[in-house]
């Protein structure tokens, strides 16, 4: 059959007989592909100009009979559905409606709705159809990029907005943000999320990398150099795509001494492609979203960058909300004057630290502190002087404590400290170190926290021990004055 566009189904359509009839009648040997046979209307032909237009369309075009069977298709359709037998088959065998509301005979309705072509990465089409020559002429307009973006935007917004109402630990919420990004951005197989803290980007979540990654930070300048598009694009939140081997070259050129851990924990040598998006809010970079692929340098289709950028914009708002909530929560657990934990923080930490002591089979000691003479300082020098004295005591408590110790101001001139792993008999040494750093007198009493002891009991016993110490100090002072 001359021409690539003269295609008809076999069997009941009697294609060969129709072809011979048309060849004789219309001299197809000279006109070639300028005609299309519509089998249920023998002898009906498509005008050469219309045929040429359909043949040249970049979109797939097919003609369907009333049962939805393919009777003709253009080269774009042949390319789209290559490797399958189209003639006489139903278009529904290859394309699936996105919505069940489109019905089994979607081609006889309006052009609303979408059709999906299954595959490793689905392709989506919006059909335009019209009745023609006893059947339906259908043109498929590809909208994969737009549809994928729309799905990603809706999905990410739903997930991210839901996080604002969750009461999970902040670290878990960071991980869920990253999981959502890897899920909605086409091509992403792994990733990491950083937050800017004290001039450096701290890794707060990772997928597909060494867990050690979340124990490290990278400086602002190193992260900006790794990004590589310049500070203007950085502040605008523009996504950057790097593929191997340029990816490895960039990493080698930007790595500074001490950053070898990122080469290993970040599996740089195994990456095929990576997308980095600055997470920007109100012109300030608050973190970076990194999405990675290990399988192909072409893992990220063109819509991935737009989706990643929009996700980062959504994530910026959510991260701001989460961090603001953490800040307010910290304020609620913090003594405004000294910056130590308050009584509410003590109530929360006591349960946690006591459970840790039991699990690790370590002693736990509570020390109850009281600043002697605070009222006298306030009366003689003013409340500002009294406040300064309390701040000094808080600073000294911090300075003598180990990493695992915690200190709290529970009201007025009273403080409490918890010491995990400190035996009761070693508490006097801690007390004396604190006194040695102060120019005011403090009374202190220590108690060993047992497994069955609650906070109220521990505070009561600590308070009693503190007053016993205060009485001893008073008797000692009176004895010295008597001499």
Automatic annotation (TrEMBL):
The encoding gene is yedQ_2
Respond yes or no to whether keyword Transferase is given for this record: yes
Per UniProt, the keywords (alphabetical) are: Nucleotidyltransferase, Transferase
What range(s) does the GGDEF domain occupy? 362-483
Which GO cellular component terms, listed alphabetically, does the Swiss-Prot or TrEMBL entry include? plasma membrane
Q: EC number(s) for this protein?
A: 2.7.7.65
Per its UniProt record, what PROSITE patterns does this chain match? GGDEF
Show the GO MF annotations: diguanylate cyclase activity
On the tree of life, the source organism's domain of life is: Bacteria
Q: Which Gene3D superfamilies match?
A: 3.30.450.40, 3.30.70.270
**In its UniProt record, which GO terms are filed under biological process?**
cell adhesion involved in single-species biofilm formation; negative regulation of bacterial-type flagellum-dependent cell motility
Source organism (scientific name): Meiothermus luteus
Question: Which InterPro entries does the protein's record reference?
Answer: Diguanylate_Cyclase, GAF, GAF-like_dom_sf, GGDEF_dom, Nucleotide_cyclase, PAS_4, Rev_trsase/Diguanyl_cyclase
Lineage of origin: Bacteria, Thermotogati, Deinococcota, Deinococci, Thermales
Return the protein name.
Answer: Putative diguanylate cyclase YedQ
């Amino acid at each position: 059959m001359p021409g690539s566009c003269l295609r008809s189904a076999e069997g009941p359509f009697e294609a060969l007989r129709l072809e011979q009839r048309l060849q004789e009648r219309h001299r197809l040997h000279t006109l070639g592909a300028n005609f299309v046979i519509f089998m249920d209307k023998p002898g009906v032909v498509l005008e050469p100009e219309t045929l040429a237009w359909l043949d040249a369309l970049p979109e797939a075009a097919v003609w369907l009979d009333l049962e939805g069977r393919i009777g003709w298709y253009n080269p774009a359709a042949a390319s789209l559905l290559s490797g399958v037998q189209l003639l006489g088959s139903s278009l529904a065998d290859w394309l699936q409606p996105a919505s069940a509301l489109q019905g089994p005979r979607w081609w006889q309705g309006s052009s609303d709705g979408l059709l999906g072509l299954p595959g490793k990465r689905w392709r989506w089409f919006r059909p335009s159809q019209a009745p023609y020559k006893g059947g339906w002429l259908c043109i498929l307009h590809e909208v994969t990029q737009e549809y994928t973006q729309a799905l990603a935007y809706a999905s990410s917004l739903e997930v991210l907005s839901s996080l604002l109402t969750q009461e999970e630990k902040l670290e878990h919420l960071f991980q869920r943000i990253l999981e959502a990004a890897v899920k909605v951005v086409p091509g992403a197989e792994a990733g990491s999320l950083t937050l800017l803290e004290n001039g450096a980007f701290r890794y707060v979540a990772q997928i597909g990398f060494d867990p050690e990654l979340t124990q490290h930070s990278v400086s602002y300048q190193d992260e900006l150099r790794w990004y590589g598009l310049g500070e203007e694009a950085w502040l605008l939140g523009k996504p950057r795509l790097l593929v191997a081997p340029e990816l490895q070259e960039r990493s080698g050129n930007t790595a500074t001494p001490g950053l070898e851990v990122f080469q290993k924990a970040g599996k740089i040598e195994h990456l095929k492609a990576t997308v980095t998006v600055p997470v920007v809010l109100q012109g300030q970079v608050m973190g970076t979203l990194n999405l990675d692929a290990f399988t192909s340098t072409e893992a990220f289709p063109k819509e991935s960058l737009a989706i990643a950028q929009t996700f980062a914009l959504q994530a910026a708002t959510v991260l701001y909300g989460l961090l603001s909530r953490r800040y307010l929560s910290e304020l609620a657990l913090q003594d405004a004057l000294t910056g130590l934990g308050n009584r509410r923080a003590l109530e929360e930490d006591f349960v946690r630290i006591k459970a840790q002591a039991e699990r690790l089979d370590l002693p736990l000691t509570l020390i109850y502190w009281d600043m002697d003479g605070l009222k006298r300082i306030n009366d003689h020098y003013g409340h500002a002087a009294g406040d300064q004295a309390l701040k000094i005591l808080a600073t000294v408590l911090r300075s003598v404590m180990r990493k695992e110790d915690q200190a709290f101001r529970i009201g007025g001139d009273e403080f409490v400290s918890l010491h995990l792993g400190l035996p009761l008999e070693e508490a006097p040494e801690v007390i004396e170190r604190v006194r040695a750093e102060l120019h005011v007198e403090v009374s202190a009493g220590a108690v060993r926290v047992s497994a069955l002891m609650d906070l109220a009991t521990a505070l009561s016993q600590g308070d009693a021990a503190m007053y016993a110490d205060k009485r001893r100090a008073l008797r000692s002072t009176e004895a010295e004055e008597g001499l």
